[in-house]
Design brief:
This protein is an all-alpha fold and 77 residues long. The protein has helices spanning 2-15, 26-44. The two termini are 27 Å apart.
């Protein structure tokens, strides 16, 4: 719980930035460099994570293999 709370806190700090960050800016790099820590925090809690970058093309639906209830977090830009 602590790990996810820290990640949530960091996300809350970024919400005030007002939209997309300029590519390669210091703020953008800082945000991108924290992503693995967020994912690792979730994995350490036993959460299964499927991470897909924005430019990924799925040839088939990845959702067919999911069974049961799931929570989905999707980033929009």
């Amino acid at each position: 719980e602590k790990a996810v709370a820290r990640a949530d806190s960091a996300n809350a700090e970024n919400e005030g930035m007002g939209g997309a960050l300029p590519y390669s800016s210091a703020a953008y790099k800082s945000l991108v460099n924290r992503r693995p820590r967020y994912i690792r925090a979730l994995l350490s809690l036993g959460v299964n994570v499927v991470y897909s970058d924005i430019d990924t093309v799925w040839m088939r639906s990845p959702f067919r293999g999911f069974i049961g209830n799931h929570t989905m977090w999707i980033q929009s830009d």
